[in-house]
């Protein structure tokens, strides 16, 4: 029961509302910080409006709790750094997912404080406004990132599997894998540049598209090659590389699920099956090549 017989707020409800106040104030500060960093005037205007709404929500709860608690500093720090690392789009959608859970709480609280329904309505408006507002450069080039990431995962994971069985020498595998990976990254970046430049309907910058493709490829290559430089056993190094590939796929799939609303596990399964399938086939080919053309370890 949320209230006592005297129709006063009970301790449990008050704790919930004070905690909600701290979150509202934290979100107010986060949106204000994001607005200051926004280069797009439209984005900045909406973020400032939402920041003001969050402050009004904080003051609304203060009228019922009689308290003015400080913001959750860790929450503010977390979201502002997420924006620096992963971009505005991912950060605000990730934060809005938390607000979706808060709406359920508002629905319960509204049974006791009817005006709380207006706060829940504001939260829904936030989500709708944010979906309309987002215009972030990196999302225009997400296709280029996907291309570089997918190609590196499929091609290099397969190549490393084949090299492992054919060569069975970690340092040699790393050197050949690195040369193969860097050459493939440059080739892929050049192909993306030429195809983007040739497509008159594509409004992206050819140089930026090539850069995003190439950098995604090179980073993936570095991560997959690292186990062969750190470990002496080639099979253990291959297992670590495959594990790293699966982790990259999972993290990127989660990013896309949040930023663009794509299904997480379906996308992860597709990429994982393709990468592991190619690696398994290459592993078998490497074994056959080693039997046919023995290479001294």
Helix count, DSSP H or I runs of 4 or more residues: 11
Number of strands: 0
Inertia-based shape: elongated
- Cα-atom Rg, whole angstroms? 26 Å
* Uncertain parts: 1-7
Strand content: under 5%
Q: Indicate the mean pLDDT.
A: 80
Taken in chain order, the helices and strands follow as HHHHHHHHHHH
**How does the helix and strand content classify structurally?**
mainly alpha
When the domains are counted, the total is 2
Mind describing the biggest β-sheet? none
Distance between the termini: 73 Å
Which percent range fits the helix content?
Answer: over 70%
Describe it.
- The protein contains eleven helices and no strands.
- It is mostly helical.
- The protein folds into two domains: 11-135; 138-292, no CATH class.
- The N and C termini lie far apart (73 Å).
Give the topology:
Layout: H1 11-37, H2 41-65, H3 73-86, H4 88-109, H5 116-133, H6 137-140, H7 142-167, H8 170-198, H9 206-230, H10 234-260, H11 264-292
In a few lines, what is going on in this structure?
The protein is an all-alpha fold and 297 residues long. It contains eleven helices and no strands.
């Amino acid at each position: 029961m949320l209230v006592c017989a005297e129709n006063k707020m009970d301790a449990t409800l008050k704790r919930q509302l004070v905690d909600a106040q701290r979150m509202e104030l934290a979100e107010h500060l986060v949106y204000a910080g994001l607005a200051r960093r926004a280069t797009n005037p439209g984005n900045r205007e909406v973020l400032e409006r939402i920041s003001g709404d969050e402050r009004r929500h904080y003051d609304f709860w203060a009228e019922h709790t009689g308290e003015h608690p400080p913001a959750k500093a860790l929450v503010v720090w977390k979201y502002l750094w997420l924006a620096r690392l992963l971009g505005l789009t991912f950060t605000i959608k990730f934060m809005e997912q938390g607000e979706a859970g808060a709406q359920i709480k508002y629905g319960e609280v509204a049974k006791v404080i009817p005006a709380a329904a207006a706060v829940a309505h504001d939260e829904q408006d936030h989500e709708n406004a944010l979906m309309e507002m987002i215009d972030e450069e990196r999302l225009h080039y997400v296709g280029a990132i996907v291309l570089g990431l997918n190609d590196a995962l499929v091609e290099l994971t397969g190549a490393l599997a084949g090299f492992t069985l054919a060569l069975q020498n970690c340092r040699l595998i790393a050197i050949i894998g690195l040369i193969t990976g860097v050459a493939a990254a440059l080739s892929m970046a050049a192909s993306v540049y030429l195809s983007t430049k040739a497509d008159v309907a594509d409004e992206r910058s050819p140089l930026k598209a090539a850069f995003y493709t190439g950098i995604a490829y090179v980073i993936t290559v570095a991560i997959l090659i690292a186990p062969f430089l750190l470990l002496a056993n080639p099979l253990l190094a291959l297992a670590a590389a495959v594990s790293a590939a699966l982790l990259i796929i999972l993290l990127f799939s989660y990013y896309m699920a949040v930023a663009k609303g794509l299904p997480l596990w379906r996308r992860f399964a597709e990429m994982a099956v393709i990468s592991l399938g190619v690696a398994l086939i290459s592993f078998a080919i490497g074994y056959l090549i080693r039997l046919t053309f023995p290479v001294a370890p």
